[in-house]
């Protein structure tokens, strides 16, 4: 693998674990200097409550992969802390080439199949803050630095493509939170166009995050055992797939052709020719459309 992003500076906001961590590491593997932010450090645990996954560890993984990882503890709902982060990047690097808004942390708040009037209102509003406000605050402060040079990239990470999310996500606050990044990317694409910048929304498929593996009681090495519990887990993908997609986007000189669009990890894998860690190319959303929703009798292997 080449160091095609050597000399580039990236900020992965929300890089403590899961897709955020994987994207930061993959950008580092391509040679980038990567600022990784989050709320869980070796001294302090966020409301997510997973103390073994820290931004310091993510930064170390970025450096071990061949890049330079810099961990900064930031709550992206606190504007002054985000402002200070961007001022630090400007002061130390003088540029920002890639912004990945992978901020979330609201899974514990989801009450599926619960009507709005029965939801825990505080939890629902917290989801909106975690998944929408944090993205807007971060972009507000980061974009003036990113647009100094043409070719900047903003990636809005969400759950579900725009097509997939036409179906109701069974919780109104969750539905709003995961649809908003599509409109954010669409709007930013228009605002960045004159500056030569690109904005996209990007969704993984059925992600084998640390939390999901724990949910099924498996590891990345034994994940297939969980298919007995949930047959649809057979289409699951590792965080490396979406990470490789972000790397490919960041290195693509013609990335502007995607601007404003809703993309998936599987779609980018097919377009750019990369695979997941097992050599497969899972098409999660095709599988869900045809098999789960469409009733087609076909194994997940047909979509890998």
From TrEMBL:
<dbReference type="InterPro" id="IPR036291">
    <property type="entry name" value="NAD(P)-bd_dom_sf"/>
</dbReference>
<dbReference type="Pfam" id="PF00106">
    <property type="entry name" value="adh_short"/>
</dbReference>
<dbReference type="InterPro" id="IPR002347">
    <property type="entry name" value="SDR_fam"/>
</dbReference>
<protein>
    <submittedName>
        <fullName>Short-chain dehydrogenase</fullName>
    </submittedName>
</protein>
